[in-house]
Amino acid sequence: MGNYIVDLVLNYIFIFGSIALFFAPFVLVFYFRNQKIIREVKPHFNQFAERFFTSKESNVLIVVWAAAEAFIWFVLPEFLLFLIIFLKVRKKFDLLKYDLIGTAIGTTIAILWHAPASFLITLPYVYQGMIEKVQGWFTDWGIWGLFFQPFSGVPFKVFNHTAYDFGFFIPFFIIIAVIARMIRYFVAYEITKAIYPFIHKFVQKNYAILFAVAVLVFTMLLMRISQIYN
User: Fold this and answer.
1) What distance in Å separates the CA atoms of residue 13 and residue 105, rounded to the nearest whole number?
2) At what angle do helices 207-229 and 170-205 cross, to 10 degrees?
3) Each residue of 43-71: pLDDT tens digit?
């Protein structure tokens, strides 16, 4: 139990820090573009978060986040969308649009890059067992093996980097990849929409707490997946 707690703390710090660094450039651009208003209003953290997540910088963040997760980043786009959706729940199709754009860009980069397995296993939370699993799915199911991805725990980037070895038609692969990704997105959205009326007021007042808890849950899930495939 003690070892698990230590590992949990270390992984939490690493993941929280990585997410903060990913956010930083977009938040800084937003701040400098709106610093006059921000200095006048002096919003607290929750208000600042709401303003940021309805900004152009947030839209760019979604695109870059989804693209990066498709070839190198380790945090699911749904994690980001889950945080945003409480603040701009009526913007579902905007969120979907930017996620689609990012997914298509990232998938294309991953396929053309075609990073070897030796590189993939150096990325955080990617293991040889994941690569072998994807190779098995592609061998048995062809391009349709992509539909194992949404709920398998295997990162999307492993599927994308492995695809080139199987000679799939790239445009069709990208279309199927986007469809497979959207399955999980819609599930996450429907769950979020269902609980939205019950916790929306809490979220508005405790956004920082929600973020910290979301990172903790995500950390525990990544650790569990690591145990399965490592």
Assistant:
1) 29
2) 140
3) 888 888 888 888 899 999 999 999 999 99
